[in-house]
Amino acid sequence: MHNTRRNLSKSTSNKSEEPWLAVTLRPENLLPGVLIGFLLGLFVDFSFLSRRGAPQDTSSLPSALSKRQSQSLSSGVTGEELKVVLVVRQDLKMGAGKIASQCAHAATGLYAELSQRNRSLLRQWEQFGQAKIVVSCKNQQEMNKLKEMAERCGLPTYIVSDAGRTQVRSGSRTVLAIGPGRKADVDSVTGKLRLL
């Protein structure tokens, strides 16, 4: 009885010693994997195209995207270089690290919001290097005017409201992100602001 157990363990250990690449490249393992991957890729691409071509329901858009913005975004911008401008309030007197973290919140918040609504716009922005320019505005009133102007132009916007854990009061609006959009469109809103 002991001999049969040893023989069984030897035969199973020989099979496990076979290199994983040799097992993977066998036709009975490789072909189904390639076929499944190909079909999954087709499904993902075609589902994206059908969403893009279908009219969007704008009633469920986040509050930061108006109907005009969503219509402008659904039409897409093709072949033009895009940029995002981050507008920082100067009256809050934030330190350099705080400004950097608030700008990061603005960029990632805008990106996350748009990844749900217009991936083609984000892809185009990515193709052109994800240009981000940081400028400053005087106060909350100027930031509000810039946001309104951007929305009238159909540009996406995102405002960061601080949690109030460090340098500024809770709920303070620290940074406004505008774009991605055509340079001319974004510059029509932010072109006169000072670089930070």
From TrEMBL:
This is peptidyl-tRNA hydrolase. Its EC number is 3.1.1.29. The lineage of its organism: Eukaryota, Viridiplantae, Streptophyta, Embryophyta, Tracheophyta. NCBIfam families: arch_pth2 (TIGR00283), PRK04322.1 (NF003314). Keywords: Hydrolase, Membrane, Transmembrane, Transmembrane helix. The chain crosses the membrane at residues 30-49. One of its GO terms (molecular function) is peptidyl-tRNA hydrolase activity. It holds the Pfam family PTH2.
